[in-house]
Amino acid sequence: MRAIALMIARALARTTEILATLIMIVVTALNLTQVGGRYLFNTGFSWTEEYMRYLMIWLMMLGSVACIFRAEHMGIEALEHLAGPRFAPLVKSALYSIAAIFCVILLVYSWPQALRNASQVAPASGIPMIYPYLALPVGAALMLVQIALSWVAGFEPEHDDLSDTGGSA
Questions:
Q1: pLDDT class of 167 with cuts at 50, 70, 90
Q2: How far is the C-alpha of 65 from the C-alpha of 14, rounded, in Å?
Q3: Of 145, 144, 112, 117, which is closest to residue 129 (Cα–Cα)?
Q4: Which of 5, 22, 107, 155 is surrounded by the fewest CB atoms within 10 Å?
Q5: Distance CA 46, CA 124 (A)
Q6: Is 143 exposed, middle or buried (0-12, 13-18, 19+ CB in 10 A)?
Q7: What's the mean pLDDT in 142-152?
Q8: Residue 62, Cα to own-chain centre: how many angstroms?
Q9: Angle CA(80)–CA(81)–CA(84) in degrees, nearest 5?
Q10: For 52-84, how does the pLDDT look when each residue is reduced to its tens digit (9 = 90+)?
């Protein structure tokens, strides 16, 4: 069970990392387009800033899923060290519980908000606002799945291909 959970958690982390990387490439290209248009052609595109803002929300939510897998998310390691090796797993379990509760609250409140804004469109780009708003419930749901998989797999990812550079230390 632990091996299957680790395999699924690794696949979820890899998928969200790839999506976040692609989003970052698009944001960078949009930013360069905006700056180039403004300084080279003395005109800017009104929609690029809006797209960048909404894509950065997706980037943060998807990147958080991978951070949970790698245990690189913001945490309170001082509490684990103070608790000692005997109680460190309990502290880590409590921290993951708090994160899961936060994700549940985020999911419960952001889903109706996304649906309420389905008919609204962004002023500059004209995209339906449900797309930026969906970043929160989708990200919260994926983080909940990753937290559950981390619990089953044992919190700390083993040395795996996500962080392996091919060399040995």
A1: very low
A2: 10
A3: 117
A4: 22
A5: 6
A6: buried
A7: 93
A8: 3
A9: 90
A10: 999 999 999 999 999 888 877 666 677 777 888
Token pair for 44: 């800017």
> How far is Cα 61 from Cα 3, in angstroms, rounded to an integer?
26
pLDDT band at 169 (very low <50, low <70, confident <90, very high): very low
- Placement of tokens 């981390």 in the chain: 150
Q: Are the C-beta atoms of residues 20 and 63 closer than 8 Å to each other?
A: yes
- Interatomic CA distance for residues 89 and 91, integer angstroms: 5
Say whether pLDDT at 143 is over 90. Answer: yes
Q: pLDDT-derived band of residue 111, with 50, 70 and 90 as boundaries?
A: very high
At 140, the amino acid letter reads A
Residues in the chain: 169
Positive or negative torsion for Cα 56, 60, 65, 70: positive
